[in-house]
Amino acid sequence: MTDEAGPWLVVGLGNPGREYAGNRHNVGFMVADLLAGRVGARFGRHKRAVAEVAEGRLGFGGPKLVLAKPLTYMNLSGGPVAALAQFYKVPPAQVIAVHDELDIGYGQVRVKCGGGEGGHNGLRSMSKSLGTKEYVRVRFGVGRPPGRQDPADYVLSDFGAAERKELDFLVDRAADVVESVIAKGVEPTQNLYHGV
Fold it and tell me: Which residues pair with 67 in a beta bridge?
């Protein structure tokens, strides 16, 4: 069991810049922003890592939460994550990456610990920089691209009009999943949310 008194590092994966804000690839940033609002924290530039960071507590007297949005672009996310994990003394088991997932249908949120990266360059960079794959992933399903569209182009495009109708609700659910992992653990969270 992890040390509940220690901080949790929740990393929203995405790309910095207004032109990427609505992209499928930036759903991690969206979830991080929502979580910051929930704990009453504001993002600011970190002095030791190329990332924006917000700090708060989960509930009254709950564990410390360090929310991070790396500013290095997705493919180089690992460097800032490793720097923050070292700075805040967060073990990999208490690092949560929130990211888009092509292999899950839109509207589904899944959680797992460890495993492969499924071609996700942000996760690949994190695993390399942390020196382990044994961190938690909250996977936000964006589905496969239609027709022959290149997956890279698909994730770097904005959510469609029909998807946007549900997006706020789904980002909210993903934030609930993150909070559940911290409060209850991965397996109880899987039991709660994977049937939904």
Answer: 10, 54
